[in-house]
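Because discrete structure vocabularies remain unfamiliar, we turn briefly to a single example record, giving the amino acid sequence and backbone structure tokens:
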Amino acid sequence: MREFVQGGVAVILATIFAGASPSMAQQKAVAVWTGVAPGSEKWMQKEETVTLPEIAGGTLLIRNVTQPTLTAFLPDAASATGTAIIVCPGGGFEFLAWEHEGTKIAKWLNNRSIAAFVLKYRLIDTGPTQKDFQTSVANFLSFIEKLVTAPPEKRPGVPESRLQIAPFTIAVGLQAVKLVRQHASEWKIAPDRVGMMGFSTGAIVTMGALMQQDAGSRPNFAAAIYGAGMERFAAPPAATPLFILNADNDPIASSGSVAAYSKWKAVVTRSSCTCTRRGAMVLG
């Protein structure tokens, strides 16, 4: 999305929402918590899955999430490696790029005999109507546009709504790791081979889980793909292997990814940072 922001917010919104329609099709998923998710008991927004028109990729977005779930993609038992990866889609905490950074990644992992679990984590309230959603996304894209085009000294700070939601999303990631390990026998998974992969703001969920002191809810390895705000994370509490991927021309993720890698490499020898020459936020 970042690479196209410079084309103008109005054009992007017209492309995204022209013909967008709610989608009712849902796969079977497992609740991350039994009952209401702790901390969001009074959240009243209604979750919605939106199908974008073909001109915008025809993909699925999910918004207004209050009840987190894991959707399991299990490989054939005969070829399963025992490794599992929790996949955290991005979307700026506005929505989840459910297909592009979620189910398609899970299926790719399945083809390599890896169990995958797409995490639907809590998001900010983008309003009850499509018009409300469009306004919320417009404000978000305007913020991204300023980050991309403004000189460093004039770039806006992180919106308060993102700072407030981040702990709730990270809590979902921690609980998801616990849940996968609790079902390790049922899902034919080795409990010491549970990883996490996050895209964009999904990388915040991933990095937050890695910083957890409790080994029971910390992944055994992780990947942060064009992660936002990576520079905010300190050195890890444990020697957890981390793979970082971003593009050199990504004005938001590039410098933060390098900074995070420098901190990580000082503690964990099995870490890697790969930078492509171009791609910004559309490496996938």
Q: What stands out?
A: The domain at 2-276 is CATH 3.40.50.1820 (Rossmann fold). Confidence is low (pLDDT under 50) at residues 1-12. DSSP finds seven helices and twelve strands in the chain.
